[in-house]
Amino acid sequence: MMRNVLIFLFAQFALLSCDGGNKDIAKEKETVSFQYEENKDYEILYCKEMSDLTNYYVLLLWENFNEASLKELAECIKMQKSPDKDCNIHIYDSKDYVHLSFEYPLKGRNYVDYAEHLVYLFAFDGSTMYYPLIDSEYKRYGGKKSFK
Q1: Strand-strand pairing, 86-92 and 128-130
Q2: Do 92 and 98 touch, CB atoms closer than 8 A?
Q3: 128-130 and 118-122: which strand pairing?
Q4: 115 vs 61: CA distance, rounded Å
Q5: What pLDDT shows up at residue 6?
Q6: How far apart are CA 104 and CA 71, in angstroms?
C-alpha cells in the first residue's frame, strides 16, 4: 500500500515537472512580472546607438523603488527596446542631472549630484549596479549618502 502511494506521488511529481503546460505558466508569470510601460513607469530621455550597442538614459517615473524593482524594470526595458541587441540602461530618479553623463571627467559637486541620481545601471553583459557611483570618489567630493 505504502509503495503504491509513493509510486503515485512520484508519478504526479513527474507529470507536473514535464514541459507540457508548465512552460505556459512560467511564461505567463514572466510576462506578468514585466508590466512596466513607457511614459507611465519610465521615460527614455536619450538613446545613443553605436554599431553594436545602444545606450538608454531612462527617467524613473515613480518614487518608491529598491534594487529589485529597478532590476526588473531594466530587464523589461531590455526586452521591450533591445531584445536582440546589446544595450546599457542608465536609470535616473531625476532628469535634472542626466546631462552630466555626457560631461567628462565629472568632478566635485557635479560628481556628487550625478552619483545621487544615477540609481541603477544595467550593463550589456547583464551585470547590474545599484547607485553605481556611490563610491570613494563620491565620498572624496563630499557625498554623504550610503546605499550599501
Answers
A1: unpaired
A2: yes
A3: antiparallel
A4: 18
A5: 29
A6: 26
pLDDT for 22-47, tens place per residue?
434 344 334 435 689 999 999 999 99
Pairwise CA distance, residues 145 & 123, whole Å: 23
Amino acid at 45: L
Q: What is the pTM of this model?
A: 0.76
Structural contact between residues 96 and 60, judged by C-beta atoms closer than 8 angstroms: no
Is 79 in contact with 91 (CB distance < 8 Å)?
Answer: no
Residue 133 and residue 148: Cα distance in Å, rounded? 12
Enter the DSSP assignment of 110.
H
Helix or strand holding residue 119 (H, E): strand 118-122
Per-residue model confidence as pLDDT tens digits over 2-17: 333 223 333 333 333 3
Tell me the three cell numbers of residue 129. Answer: 549596479
Residue found under cell 507540457: 20
Residues, the chain: 148
How is residue 59 written as a grid cell?
527617467
CA distance 54 to 59: 16
CA distance 66 to 86: 24
